[in-house]
Amino acid sequence: MSSKKNNTRAAKIRRQAKARAERSTRTPSPKAASLPVALEAFKQALAVGHLSVLCSDGQVRQLTYDRMRDHLNAEFATDGEPPLSAEELTRLLADDLASGEMAMRTDGVWVTSKDYFATPEVQP
Asked: Which residues contact 87 (CB under 8 A, 6 or more apart)?
C-alpha cells in the first residue's frame, strides 16, 4: 500500500512542477495603468501626435491624433454637425479615457476602439 501511496504522491509532485513551469514561461498580460498615469501619458502622446495602439490582430500600430480627429469628424459629418474644434476633440478623447473606452496598459500600449482603423487614413 505504501508504494502505491508513494507513486501517487510522486505523480502529484510531477504535475505540480509541470504546471509551475508552464506558468513561469507565460508572459502575464499587462494591466491597465492608473487614470492619473494614463492622463499624463495621454498629454505626452498628444504632444507627439500619436498613440501606440494594440490592434485586433495583435500588432501595435501608431494611431495618429489626425486620424482620430478625421474619424470622429466623419461621424459628426454624417449627422450634419460641423467639425470638432481641437478643444472638443481633446475633451471627447479625455472622456473616452475616463469612461474606460480608451485605456493605457502598464507597458505603455493603448487599447481603444478598433473603429479608428476601419476608416481609411486621409493622405495630405
From this structure: none
Grid cell at residue 61: 500600430
> Could you read off the pLDDT of 31-77 as tens digits, one per residue?
889 989 998 999 899 899 999 999 888 899 999 999 999 999 998 89
Hey, what's the cell of 70?
A: 478625421
Question: Comparing C-alpha atoms, which of 110, 117, 87 is closest to residue 39?
Answer: 110
Residue 108 predicted with pLDDT over 90 = yes
Rounded-to-integer distance, Cα 86 and Cα 46, Å: 11
The pTM of the whole model exceeds 0.85? no
What is the Cα 99 distance to its own chain's centre? 14
Using DSSP, state whether 101 is helix, strand or coil. coil
